[in-house]
């Protein structure tokens, strides 16, 4: 089965900038696809269109077999992870993890069990009562992952999630993300300008340039070429 189908998608911003010029990509169930390319190639725009944060000028986006062009982000069964974590500073880690679920009307006992499970999975169980300001960068990134995980999304959307971390932590978190994604078997799109990141994470890489796909393939296929 295919989790995500991007069909002939174009994006023209109101100022006339053509950010995406006819892109078609499929992401299979459980697959991790990395969109890679230089700054301005259109990778964030593409991801934001999948998330519903940006209108599609033309083309079609399908999630789990359903066209989502006209659906709000909250109706899309996606979860995003950003570099700035987007955590609520005044809430504890537990409250941050529970927040979205409360809005959905999930029962207290279900919220508690999901938050505890995510805490264990991400090794942040000891920090659930702290505020984000009392956490290290890596721990904050784990909480951001936890917020995505408790949603049980059809797909994770990562937008340069590690670019605020130092090189050592970035390598570590990259492995953690890969292991987590394998374990959960949830499809994922991961956007980065970093080829090493693309190579170590991806099942498949989509190389974008000037709003077009330049290459698609496994890391070995994409980076073994002369
Ligand atoms: P990337 O994520 O690969 O750096 P983006 O998707 O952010 O690329 O941007 C692709 C192109 O679209 C760039 O030329 C950028 O300047 C332009 N762009 C991005 N966001 C907007 C916007 N809100 N309005 C106008 N142009 C934009
Ligand atoms: P809901 O559970 O109804 O989606 P939330 O408060 O969780 O309500 O989310 C509000 C909006 O923010 C929605 O558009 C939702 O898709 C988005 N959102 C919240 N958290 C995340 C996340 N981790 N990843 C992606 N989107 C999120």
UniProtKB/TrEMBL annotation:
The keyword Disulfide bond does not apply. One of its GO terms (biological process) is carbohydrate transport. GO terms for molecular function: ABC-type transporter activity; ATP binding; ATP hydrolysis activity. Residues 4-226 form the ABC transporter domain. It comes from the Bacteria. The keyword Transport applies. GO terms for cellular component: ATP-binding cassette (ABC) transporter complex, substrate-binding subunit-containing. Keywords: ATP-binding, Cell inner membrane, Cell membrane, Membrane, Nucleotide-binding, Sugar transport, Translocase, Transport. Belongs to the ABC transporter superfamily. This is Sn-glycerol-3-phosphate ABC transporter ATP-binding protein UgpC. The chain holds residues 1 to 226 of 347 of the full protein.
């Amino acid at each position: 089965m295919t989790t995500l189908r991007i069909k002939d998608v174009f994006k023209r911003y109101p100022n006339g900038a053509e950010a995406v010029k006819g892109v078609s990509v499929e992401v299979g169930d459980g697959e991790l696809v990395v969109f890679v390319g230089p700054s301005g190639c259109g990778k964030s725009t593409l991801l934001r269109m999948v998330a519903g944060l940006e209108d599609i000028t033309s083309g079609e986006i399908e999630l789990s077999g359903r066209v989502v062009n006209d659906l709000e982000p909250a109706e899309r069964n996606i979860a995003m992870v950003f570099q700035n974590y987007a955590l609520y500073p005044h809430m504890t880690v537990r409250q941050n993890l529970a927040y979205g679920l409360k809005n959905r009307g999930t029962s207290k006992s279900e919220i508690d069990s999901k938050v505890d499970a995510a805490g264990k999975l991400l090794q942040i169980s000891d920090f659930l009562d702290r505020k984000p300001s009392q956490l290290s960068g890596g721990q904050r990134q784990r909480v951001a992952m936890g917020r995505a995980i408790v949603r049980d999304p059809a797909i994770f959307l990562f937008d340069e999630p590690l670019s605020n971390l130092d090189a050592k932590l970035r390598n570590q978190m990259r492995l953690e993300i890969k292991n987590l994604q394998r374990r959960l078997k949830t499809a994922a799109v991961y956007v980065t300008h970093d080829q090493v990141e693309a190579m170590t994470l991806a099942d498949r890489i989509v190389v974008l340039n000037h709003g077009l796909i330049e290459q698609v393939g496994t890391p070995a296929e994409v980076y073994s070429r002369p």
